[in-house]
Amino acid sequence: MAPSTEIKAGTGLTRNAVTTLGVVVLVLSAASPLIGLTGAVPSAMVLGNGIGTPVAYVAVGVLLLFFSIGFVAMSRRVTNAGALYAYVGRGLGMPMGLGAAGMALWAYTTIQLAVYGFFGVVFSGTINSWWGIELPWYVCTIGLIILVQIFGYLKIEIGAKVLLVVMALEWGVMLLMAIVIMIQGGAGEGFAVAEVWSPSNLLAAGAVVGIIFAFASMFGFESSAIYGEEAREPKRTVARATVVSISLITIFFGFTSWMLIVGYGPSVAVDAALASLEGGDPAQYVFAAGETYLGSWAPVVMSIFVITSMFACNLAFHNGIARYQYTLARDGIFPKALAKTNSHGAPFVSSIVQTVTALVFIILAVVLNADPVLVVFFWGSGVSIVALVALYCLTSLAVIVFFRRNRDAEAKPWSTLIAPLLSGLLMLYALFLIVTNFELLVGTEKGQALMLAGTAVIAFLIGLALYGLRKRNLSPEALADLAEEVM
Prior knowledge:
By secondary structure, the protein is mainly alpha-helical.
């Protein structure tokens, strides 16, 4: 990581704190592909399009890369820790920007809560199986919240360095398993290239479900823009980190999910995934393959890495939420206290508020006796998907409008009009598919599922309402001044 420019406690984030590699690590931690591989991939195979699941992941990855064309063009003109809030605000106006901010905060909060719930169950079960110690899931979750808060108070580059080590180990063992399977030829049934990678798999029965789970596993790349104010050469760093992150996530899911199918054998891979779901632990689909091809040590190490990946994921989202709140406070929407930074350049007040918010929701789940997996995890992750895909649609529209109003020599039609228009339409269709099949993702009946999806709309409306209530506290040039900063 590059040396940071230290600042005194005040209201500024640390400049030049993270390199492209640091931002990529933060983004990959938020996306947490290890959680998606052990949780979503087996479910996508059983409920979706079977051994055609890798195609769904690659298709979604290509769509996200397509979306990133306009996203990157915007990142070169707008550098702001508010990320999608700033992009939508610059393109569609401050009211829409604040609506986007409300939706983004709700999306990141719900996915963070989902991972906290999942962590509590996995960690409590792990220490019970290893040492016979029984702890309630929420005790483990609160312990993680405290640990995340400690790192959230420190320099952003310290968190990035820790996450780099964690991510290298997590990705390393999963890719090692996939490579060994490839070298050994799997179960002896061949690589089934034609069956796995046929484009017709995207039209097969259950393909929609596979696509939904792919979206659930791959979002988080947009958090690259959150760190623009703390990055070296932000206009290049955010662009590079975005494209690299999406590419790595797509390759990771496409390759590892394919090799798992080869490892089990295409004829029995779906049955093996079904058995893991029926056993109540979809991660066993991956762990069992690890034991077969790497040895008895693999499941133990993999279970540890699933736990560390959840720490990495929630630290990344904690940093993202804290910086959204910081930006809204700096712009006069939230109380000014949230814009205070410590000597590390971290928005420590916003960080603490974010921690308290998470604690309140977790305590509420405990009081209501909500199941940490069936309710906290599935509901939270489902709501976040709806909110984020809706934000991608808004961002595509904002890119088009912004560059129609601010024409310059660098504004190429492909990146500022054609690609955002096509990706926006595709994202809108994806949003339709997700909402109309939402009950499959959150595990409830249709009416309740639509109510949950509707909370994303409520979050957007709350953001709009904040504009009406707080617009007098804003200077008309607030967002424009922030966007035009020369980094």
